[in-house]
Amino acid sequence: MKTFSKRPSPSERLRGTACPVCGSPETRPLWDLGDFAFARCAGCGHVYQNPRPDPADLTLRYDEEYLEYEVRNALPYLRLMLLGLADLGFERIEAALPEGRSFLDVGCATGALVEHAARRGWEATGVEVCRPAAEYGRRVRGVTILEGSLRDAAFPDDGFDFVHSSHVIEHVPEPGAFLAEIHRILKPGGWCVTVTPNRTSLQAALFGSGWRSVIPDHMHLFSRPGLLRLVRDSGLAPLRTATWGGIALGLAPAPLKAALDRAAKLLGFGDVLAVLARKPPAGT
Ligand SMILES: [Zn+2]
């Protein structure tokens, strides 16, 4: 599946930035892709766009074109998100929570997962930066979706039992602040799942700057240690990580793909990385 991305507009303002994982200002150029470039942090090895566009300009990239992409892919993406959640033990967590449990999907697109959670008895909410996608979700699915960034939503402290975000954190200019906000809005003892491309995957190693996740809209390409560091720094306690997808569809004969997918899951070199974390319960 192709990941949605837009070429940067020439009017976007670019500025240099320190590493969002360790704070080091020192970077080494990694890939120059013409109108965007990735650098590697000299301190911790995190790979991110530097210089990067102004956050306000980034938001403007998510428009009608993004809605069409999301509508086209809503079902396969929902299926993938549910497989990932199942792998991380979502159903056990769900079963242990009382009635009235609350679910937030950050970057919910048209709200397919919000709708799914609502049908399973969650009080489900989405937040989405793309206004047409949020409007579509409210109109077509009848679900609650707030427009804007997670911070714009200004949710109260300690409000959610479960916060999910899939393929969002790599788009966010300040991923540490993003996770800190998730920590703030989770109830003590609440859970979150963060899913993002895995920079230390087989495909990333094979394709380098041609890896499918090296696109203008990805501000960050996380490794497992880098993401775990940010999760811990935000106050969340990581419980499990998982990776999925050894090789993309069509890149290897079916039996080889199946073997690589199994090995990737077992050994952690899958193309998608997920972390299940928990906000420490009160009094701990
Ligand atoms: Zn760093």
Mean pLDDT score: 91
Order of helices and strands: EEEEEHHHEHEHEHEHEHEHEHE
List the ions, cofactors and other small molecules found in this model. zinc ion
Number of helices: 10
Question: Please, could you describe this protein's structure?
Answer:
The chain has 284 residues and is α/β, with parallel strands linked by helices. It has one domain (59-278): Vaccinia Virus protein VP39 (Rossmann fold). The chain contains 10 helices and 13 strands. The protein has helices at 55-59, 64-87, 90-96, 112-119, 131-141, 150-153, 175-185, 202-207, 224-233, 254-267, and strands at residues 14-15, 27-32, 37-41, 47-49, 52-53, 102-106, 123-128, 144-147, 160-166, 186-197, 220-221, 237-244, 272-278. It has a 7-stranded mixed beta sheet with strand order 8-7-6-9-10-13-12, with helices on both faces. Helix 5 links the parallel strand 7 (123-128) and strand 8. The relative contact order is 0.14. The model has no long low-confidence stretch (mean pLDDT 91). Zinc ion binds next to loops.
Write the layout of secondary structure elements.
Blueprint: E1 14-15, E2 27-32, E3 37-41, E4 47-49, E5 52-53, H1 55-59, H2 64-87, H3 90-96, E6 102-106, H4 112-119, E7 123-128, H5 131-141, E8 144-147, H6 150-153, E9 160-166, H7 175-185, E10 186-197, H8 202-207, E11 220-221, H9 224-233, E12 237-244, H10 254-267, E13 272-278
Parallel strand pairs: 6-7, 6-9, 7-8, 9-10
Antiparallel strand pairs: 1-5, 2-3, 3-4, 4-11, 10-13, 12-13
The chain binds zinc ion (ZN).
